[in-house]
Amino acid sequence: MSNGQKKYLVTGGAGYVGSVVAAHLLEAGHAVTVLDDLSTGHREGAPGGADFIEGRIQDAAKWLDRSYDGVLHFAAFSQVGESVVNPEKYWRNNVGGTTELLAAMRDAGVRTLVFSSTAATYGEPSEVPITEDAATAPTNPYGASKLAVDHMISGECAAHGLAAVSLRYFNVAGAYQGTGGVAYGERHDPESHLIPLVLQVAQGRREAISVFGDDYPTPDGTCIRDYIHVADLAQAHLLALDAAQSGEHLICNLGNGNGFSVREVIETVRQVTGHPVPEVAAPRRGGDPAVLVASAEQARTRLGWRPSRADLAGIVADAWDFAQRLASPEKRA
């Protein structure tokens, strides 16, 4: 392997965020192996330059050896609603699977980990913007499973010298066009994220977008969320690999530090796409905080991370381009 090139295992690398991070690693000159069971990922999402293994994280010991310099761990179930009605699925996979992955890393002598965590670990915050020392009180099994993994990683670092960084994302959005024109973006089924749902209305695939609550204590009465471009997110993962230190579990929030309301997102989609987006009022959903905005100061200080694509219109435009590619096979790269 050439000087400076490293070898990484990316679990869940055929999913939305994992595929974009894998693409960035390849573009940085590293060797990448994607491990994904394709239960929610898509084979075509894994970058072409990566080795691909169709398999479960529970079986990572079959493939993980000392030749790897680190692991970037995205493989997890992430549907909040599903986690409420089927919590055992989330404990078994997200927690049990990561237990096996950590054991495989320990046995192979692979001592660097970047973990895809989530703002759902905080639950309903008492203060905004949210910092890493805010109380963690997840309101659903998905968030609880991710918090449990964070606790596991802390123990692994203290006991066995693992160098680990957990990145707690807020609302990831947008799409990324890599080298050769290959595009990576959201294609969840079912879809639960606001921007792709609103884009489906613009495409005529959905009649209207539901606005869950318009009486929140915000300027326009709708919830405010912090949106981060998936390419900015990917850059943070590469920086985290360099920042990881033996025996330390560093936790960093990732967000832009400002938020946009549901209605602002809908109006931005109208402006970017030029299509009407009908909306219908719906009751509030339980557990939806009025405002979720991150303080990413720790990521700036410890990782040297600076988001460069914070403009909502740009995020929506990239997501729209990807949605159009999916809708028109001849446009796919």
Spatial separation of the terminal alpha carbons? 29 Å
Strand order of the largest sheet: 3-2-1-4-5-6-13
Q: Report mean pLDDT, rounded to a whole number.
A: 94
How do the SSEs run, as a string of H and E? Answer: EHEEEHHEHEEEEHEEEHEEHEEHH
Overall geometry: globular
Tell me the major beta sheet.
7 strands, parallel
Classification by helices and strands: alpha/beta
Protein topology:
Layout (H helix, E strand, L loop, with lengths): L6 E5 L4 H12 L3 E6 L14 E4 L15 E4 L6 H6 L1 H22 L3 E7 L22 H20 L2 E7 L1 E3 L2 E2 L5 E2 L9 H9 L6 E4 L11 E2 L1 E3 H14 L5 E6 L5 E2 H12 L5 E4 L8 E2 L4 H7 L8 H16 L6
Parallel strand pairs: 1-2, 1-4, 2-3, 4-5, 5-6, 6-13, 7-12, 10-15, 11-16
Antiparallel strand pairs: 8-9, 11-14
